[in-house]
Design goal:
Membrane topology: Multi-pass membrane protein
CATH superfamily of the largest domain: ABC transporter type 1, transmembrane domain
Subcellular location: Cell membrane
CATH class of the largest domain: Mainly Alpha
Largest sheet: 6 strands, mixed
Number of helices: 20
Domain ABC transmembrane type-1: 24-311
CATH topology of the largest domain: ABC transporter transmembrane region fold
InterPro entries: AAA+_ATPase, ABC1_TM_dom, ABC1_TM_sf, ABC_transporter-like_ATP-bd, P-loop_NTPase, Type_1_exporter
Pfam families: ABC_membrane (PF00664), ABC_tran (PF00005)
Length: 584
């Protein structure tokens, strides 16, 4: 859903309201800055008319020194007030961006797998980092500039009317011209700013994709192609950015500067035609010229910062659009807090990711506590989809899934996550230590329990051989460890959580045969006393399963023990013979 600029600003102001007292302090310092800026030309006028005039040039030196002390005190006070105003706005800005990043990150944690299937990781990162930083720029620079410029404009205008309202009226026609210039700028720049931000997001997507897939890129010699694609996107970003600069150059500072020069011409013409009869003093002329500069400078600053404001508004809209996503993972509004045994029963379950084509068709099976069942089949047959539904990554509405005779939707999310242990084909390790990856930030787990889990899956000797043992640092994704080592740590992590139901999603697919044989005993120990569902690529790893289900195009076409399926001489027998032939 596209958000209007008004709704975006309303939500940003709601974030600012959280820090209303700090904002009020920043506004107070800004108002003080405006008053001091207005007082300085008045002081200069008094100096010119009272101390520079030859008729009073014999004034005591002390009076002049006192004036100079006051004049420079005004300058120092203005600098101090400006500093306090800017630092207050910066703190408000940083606090707001922290809150926005926390809110969008919290929302991302709750979104379902369907969102991550359809959204590039680089695009998400771009919105959480680059776009939120653009929002920070709006509050720390643009918003403070807008407020200070508005206050300075109003105070200066009131002062000019009090000095000479006739001359001030001659300046007012320039204001609607400025307004028209700003409107034209918004009309032409809005689309360019949006496309510039979109291309920046595309750059992040392409960069993240290239870095994550660098092994494949280099292995297939795709460096030149990726460079060309990146160059194209980067060039499109440059094109839109340059077009934005062109629009800025026409409608922003150059146009405002031209209007300011014309205003000076009007003032000097007015003074030149009326100086004999008007009684204007040199000090008044100087003050008026300074006030015209102060009148136009805020407008120039506003228009100059309008590009940043436009970019920040577009960026904030992109952030809020992602923050407003509601395609969450299935919510468990159930009342059951604990899984007692772990008996599982699928009753006529059908499912479609897109609502058009079923990937699961009338799936029914049953597995009791302590039993192991396995699913085999070609890629796309629906094996992982069964796990996705059971883990509640996706919602389904045809058929039922029962645990201990209760509908899976009647269990609380915490109960399911606590009682189900999942081991994936690609083990994911976090930046930290060996111990923190096994503990998985469950602080209630003691060091002794961590060590016992490692010993249970026969990985303790390997860990203790590392420098620092359990405190050995783990890099991002565990890149310094082999695939087998990472998988063993994933087993230890699962066992440490003491799950009642174990899900093995091709957990040994990426492990060499020697390592696989070493951990088979660990897998058998892990399965004892637990309900286990295994998705297997290597049929040799699931021959002892209580029941093996063969899937094809979302349907169960065969089921039985290993011996029974071999005797059927069907799809399973062909798969087994094919793998056996490859092993020879």
């Amino acid at each position: 859903m596209k958000l209007s600029e008004a709704s975006v600003m309303k939500r940003l102001l709601a974030y600012m309201w959280r820090y209303k007292w700090l904002t009020a302090l920043a506004l107070a310092f800004t108002f003080l800055t405006s008053l001091l800026l207005t007082a300085i030309p008045l002081a200069a006028r008094w100096f010119i008319d009272n101390l520079v005039d030859p008729k009073v040039s014999t004034a005591p030196v002390l009076t002049a020194l006192q004036f100079l002390a006051l004049y420079y005190a005004l300058f120092v006070a203005r600098v101090l007030a400006t500093y306090l105003s800017q630092i207050s706005f910066a703190r408000v800005s940083n606090s707001i961006v922290r809150d926005i990043r926390l809110d969008i990150f919290r929302n991302l944690q709750g979104l379902g797998m369907s969102f991550y299937d359809q959204t590039a990781a680089g695009s998400i990162v771009s919105r959480v980092t680059n776009d939120t930083q653009a929002v920070a720029d709006m509050f720390s620079t643009v918003f403070s500039s807008l407020v200070s410029s508005l206050l300075l404009f109003l105070v200066t205008l009131v002062t000019m009317f009090s000095l000479d309202w006739h001359l001030t009226i001659w300046i007012l026609p320039f204001l609607p011209i400025i307004w028209i210039s700003i409107k034209l700028y918004r009309k032409f720049s809005n689309r360019l700013v949006k496309m510039t931000r979109q291309k920046l997001s595309d750059i992040n997507v392409k960069l993240a994709e290239s870095i994550e897939g660098m092994r494949i890129v280099q292995a297939f010699r795709q460096e030149k192609r990726l460079t060309q694609e990146f160059e194209q996107i980067n060039g499109e970003h440059l094109s839109y950015a340059n077009r934005s600069v062109d629009v800025n150059s026409i409608f922003l500072r150059p146009a405002m500067s031209l209007l300011q020069v014309l205003a000076y011409a009007v003032i000097l013409t007015f003074f030149g035609l009326n100086w004999r009869n008007s009684g204007f003093t040199a000090g008044l002329i100087y003050a008026f010229i300074q006030y015209v500069n102060q009148l136009f400078q805020p407008l120039i600053d506003v228009t100059q910062n309008f590009a940043t404001l436009q970019t920040s508004t577009v960026s904030a809209a992109r952030v809020f659009e992602m923050m407003d996503r509601t395609d969450y993972e299935p919510k468990q509004a159930g009342y059951l807090n604990e899984i007692e045994r772990g008996d599982i029963h699928f009753e006529h379950v059908s499912f479609s990711y897109d609502g058009k084509r079923d990937v699961l068709k009338d799936i029914s099976f049953e597995v009791k506590n302590g039993e192991t069942i396995a699913f085999v089949g070609h890629t796309g047959s629906g094996k992982s989809s069964i796990i996705n539904l059971f883990m509640r990554f996706y919602e389904f509405d045809r058929g039922r899934i029962l645990i201990d005779g209760n509908d899976i939707k009647d269990y609380r999310q915490e109960a399911l996550r606590k009682s189900i242990g999942l081991v994936l084909q690609e083990p994911f390790l976090y930046h930290g230590s060996i111990a923190s990856n096994i503990r998985m930030y469950h602080q209630e787990l003691t060091d002794e329990e961590i060590h016992q889990a490692a010993e249970f899956v026969d990985v303790a000797d390997f860990i203790e051989s590392l420098p620092g043992a359990y405190d050995h640092p783990v890099t991002e994704r565990g890149s310094t460890l082999s695939t087998g080592q990472r998988q063993l740590l994933a087993f230890a992590r699962t066992i440490a959580a003491k799950p009642k139901i174990l899900i093995l999603d091709e957990a040994t697919a990426n492990i060499d045969q020697e390592t696989e044989e070493m951990i088979q005993s660990s897998l058998k120990k892990m399965r004892q006393g637990r309900t286990t569902i295994a998705i297997a690529h290597r049929l040799s790893t699931i021959q002892d399963a209580n029941c093996i289900y063969v899937l094809d195009k979302g349907k169960i076409i065969e089921s039985g023990s290993h011996e029974e399926l071999i005797a059927l001489k069907g799809t399973y027998k062909k798969m087994y013979d094919l793998q056996a032939g490859m092993m020879q």
